[in-house]
User: What shape does this take?
Amino acid sequence: DPKIIQKPKYLVAVTGSEKILICEQYLGHNAMYWYRQSAKKPLEFMFSYSYQKLMDNQTASSRFQPQSSKKNHLDLQITALKPDDSATYFCASSQDMGGRDEQYFGPGTRLTVL
Amino acid sequence: AQKVTQTQTSISVMEKTTVTMDCVYETQDSSYFLFWYKQTASGEIVFLIRQDSYKKENATVGHYSLNFQKPKSSIGLIITATQIEDSAVYFCAMRENNYAQGLTFGLGTRVSVFP
Assistant: This one.
């Protein structure tokens, strides 16, 4: 059974719309993260959460809002979508927030904004 | 600020041989952690191996091992006895001992293993 679920796998949106990317982890981890992978750019860290609390936000835009309704859920709401937001968004989790804790990644949601 | 650089864009090797790929990093912290991940053709990102900066011994897991040269800020990945399924993009990443931060990744090295 998959340990980190991301829904949907593919998402197509129009410019200006709003979408929510879903992430659930069943590893019993206390920390969760969002990363973005765009063409020709390294995987980019966006947010970190620990026990449902925002720990770090590295996105410059308030259009990206993480939402944690349960300890094992970390959704990502993106508003006023732009074509530049097209990327694959990966959710990850780790046992805790320690620097040495390995992060495990979900399968990703590929977002295309037209 | 952290920075991770992988200069090799792609490497091709024959099956059952050894492949080595490079990674250099920049950090102001005295304590940090270095990771290698691989991304398969399906897009799955898989954790492979970790090196703690305060450990002198090179980490080894299965047929993955690291060449950690701290004075050079270098962490190379060595894959021995490569198999076709080792074909993937390999990412080097680091994390300082700041509990809130995520990983900083390099651009990756694409490895193609041929029979």
